[in-house]
Amino acid sequence: MANEEDDPIIQEIDVFLARSLLEKLYLFQYPIRPASMTYDDVTHLSAKIKPKQQKVELEMAIDTLNPNYCRSKGEQIALNVDGTCTDETSTYSSKLMDKQTFCSSQAASNVSRYAAAVYKKGELHLTPLHGILQLRPSFTYLDKADAKHREREAANEGGDSSQDEAEDDVKQITVRFSRPETEQARQRRVQSYEFLQKRQAEEHWVHLHYYGLKDSRSEHERQYLFSQGHGLAENTELIKSPSEYLMMLMPPSVEEENDKPMAPSNVLSMAQLRTLPLADQIKILMKNVKVMPFANLLSLLGPGTDATAVLRCVQQVALLVQGNWVVKSDVLYPKDTSSPHSGVPAEVLCRGRDFVMWKFTQDRWVVRKEVAAVTKLCPEDVKDFLEHMSVARINKGWEFMLPYDEDFVKKHPDIVQRQQMLWMGIQAKLEKVYNLLKEHLTPKKQEAQSAHPLLVSGEQRVNMAKAKVKQNYGQLEKEFQKQKAEMKSNDASAKTDVPNIHIKEEPVSVEEPMDTSAHEGLNNGLVNGLHTAQGSMDPVNGHLPGGCIDRVAQELKAFVSSTFKKQFVLTLSELKRLFNLHLASLPPGHTLFSGISDKMLQDMVLDTGCKQILVPFPPQTAASPDELKVYALWEAGDTYDQHRQVLLEIFSKNYRVRRNVIQNQLSQECGEDLNKQEVDRVLKVSFCSLW
Q: Phi, psi at residue 56, to the nearest 5°?
């Protein structure tokens, strides 16, 4: 009461509700204007609106005489958009960017709480707003400039193409017959973003006439912001009882839900999610995330959630794979649905996805071709299955995306046992459907399957290592004899020492067992790309012995020379790939296994008579640095040396050249009139490995 006495009422103002502009009044929010932009009566050139979408486009002039306006920039933009010719379709007829287009977007979906107020002579007149639109600059002229640039590039590339090239450019097409559209498929198509965009584009623009601030028509329309009659009959909305007024300020929650804008079906906030029952929360989370550890699931459900109830609910919508929960296939593919790629019914998709999940219960790695061969599904469907729960690894396959959850397996052995029984039933069904062979049922590597590594004891690993050594002893003996023969031929001084060398079989230590469970068969005799052979060529503290440097240089020079005589132009990336293939073909203990750096390889390339060609690749290229370094053999001693040098000079100035330019340049420099076939032969011989 004391606070109310300190804040007395100074004035009472009558409030009136104006209805003349009801459902016609919009509020435009303009961006902060630059110094060269003015919003006066002269600047508005045109305006148009789409009433259903409440979308507005305004075209406004730019003050090109303003000292802050950059005229050279405006001319450059106009030239990029319209080119050199000007006609009716030109965006900037004055060859200068002298106007700017603004497009609107809705600032608020529910504007029933907003009104425009006018105060006059002690009266406040309110007019409800029909929409609040934010105007933002439109940069469609940049898209037009990019389109013209692509057209010019396409014209330049296609200008020198011949009839023969057009006939060779034949592409294989796949014909698919569409299935009858179901009601659910039609509803999904109608609710798709592409369909909504098409519907919005079909609505025609309604062109408007703009009246300035001081125009007589504007003065006339402005009078409609005032209530036309001050009688009580027109303002009954403002005469309410206290309870009715509070009801208007705070309507029931049901009405609020009805007034909410429709959100996409796959978007749900965490606040809305936690209002649903626990089972629905878990189903929605698993359907969106697809693979989740149990600890993460509990954290998303909020504090105070009963873990036992979560376990009971998650088993209804997910299966346990390597200690993590993976959403069930029938949740992702409900009944009476089909594949968006191939049209296969949901039942077949569920069987194929269950096979992938079952494979991950047996091993951490799955091969895509094996899944496609067993399930007989299209590659797109198989890829979707694998992307749900795994990550692709180059030259290895698909690896399960989450690590083995040992904590959950230890805390809930009863759940793990129940899930194993479920998987046994699923395996039995898959065997009948797919006629699985023994090789499909047995993991390829028992040591590397999804079970935790600690389940294999140290003694078992020692026994496995001993068995592996005994099994491969014969092969090791052959490799040693081969290495001994090479050492005899390469080093005459070692002839008397070699017969005294004997293989010593040392017992495997029990204290330090050899771990071959996770890596056997993967290295193929290589460790970090090098053969695991011991010899006198091993580096000492990172440096080679003095007598080995010359031998390494000779071997490297021989490789580089022979490679560039076969392929005259190579990138550094391709050269390194060929060098690695060369290393893989060499016997163990070779001198090149001592370690060759990139710098040594590049220096040797330059020493063998090659030159680096500085090709001006575009800045936005996605190529790696090694792919941007191009080396070429300058003189090979054949009839194409002069032609090749001319070509290298051409490509050192531009990375993309038309064939007729190459033909003219070759004719001028070499003094020969080359036809198209001869130019193609020169290009093929010179750049067969690069272009």
A: -125, 145
Tally helices (H) and strands (E) across the chain: 29, 20
Dihedrals phi, psi of 162, to nearest 5 degrees: -100, 175
Query: Are 305 and 208 within one domain?
Result: no
Report the alpha-carbon distance of residue 272 to residue 270 in Å, rounded. 5
Q: CA nearest 81: which of 154, 155, 140, 141?
A: 141
For 350, the enclosing helix (H) or strand (E) is: helix 346-362
pTM: 0.33
Residues 432 and 367: beta-carbon distance below 8 Å? no
Burial label, 109 (beta-carbon count in 10 A; 0-12, 13-18, 19+): exposed
**Is position 124 within any domain?**
yes
Per-residue DSSP letters for 525-579? TEETTEE---STTS-BTTB--HHHHHHHHHHHHHHHHHHHHH-SEEEHHHHHHHH
pLDDT tens for each residue of 218-277: 888 888 888 876 554 445 555 677 787 777 777 766 544 444 444 445 556 777 787 888
Residue 424 belongs to some domain of the structure = yes
**Residue 524, in any domain of the structure:** no
Beta-strand relationship, 131-137 and 569-571: unpaired
> Residues 562, 567, 569, CA angle at the centre, nearest 5°?
120
Q: For residue 203, which amino acid is it?
A: E
Q: Which long-range contacts (CB under 8 A, 24 or more apart) does 429-437 make?
A: 429/351, 430/351, 430/354, 430/355, 430/358, 433/351, 434/351, 434/355, 434/374, 434/375, 436/374
- Is there a contact between 342 and 375 (Cβ–Cβ < 8 Å)? no
Residue 274 sits in the same domain as residue 415: yes
Bridge-based pairing of strands 324-327 and 569-571 is unpaired
Beta-sheet pairing, 123-128 with 14-17: parallel
How does residue 535 score in pLDDT terms, banded at 50, 70 and 90?
A: very low
Q: Is 162 part of a structural domain of the chain? A: no
For 462, the token pair is 């020692």
Residues spanned by the domain of 554:
547-687
pLDDT surpasses 90 at 179: no
Residue 684 CA: distances (Å) to CA of 157, 352, 674, 677, 689: 19, 47, 15, 10, 9
H helix or E strand, kind and range, residue 104: strand 99-106
Least confident of 87-91, 459-463, 505-509, 672-676: 505-509
Give the number of residues written for the chain.
691
Do 310 and 372 belong to one domain? yes
In three-state secondary structure terms, 132 is strand
Give the integer Cα–Cα distance in Å for 519 and 54: 64
Q: Assess whether 219 and 327 both reside in one domain.
A: no
Amino acid at 90: S
Query: Do 16 and 140 fall into the same domain?
Result: yes
Dihedral, 517, 520, 522, 524 alpha carbons, nearest 10: 170
